[in-house]
Write a structure and sequence with these properties.
Shape: globular
Structural class: mainly beta
Number of helices: 0
Oligomer: single chain
């Protein structure tokens, strides 16, 4: 899984996915964070792209590279 945990009052999103997917890249759409539509893509190299988060949200992760866009 993505190991996703949202902490809206604190303005944080934790992303700690399990081992890289053996079946290829993974994309999850239809998520919502504080009313904003959010999508998360995880590629086979372990890099994540997050779209739709408000700019003030802090993304916490311990082992992957993340790029975020609104």
């Amino acid at each position: 899984g993505l190991g996703l945990s949202a902490h809206v009052p604190d303005g944080r999103l934790q992303l700690r996915p399990g081992p890289r997917p053996a079946f290829g890249p993974l994309e999850v759409t239809g998520l919502r964070y504080a009313g904003h539509p959010v999508s998360i893509a995880l590629d086979t190299a372990g890099e994540a792209t997050i779209r739709g988060l408000p700019p003030q949200v802090v993304i916490e992760t311990d082992r992957i590279v993340v790029s975020a866009s609104v």
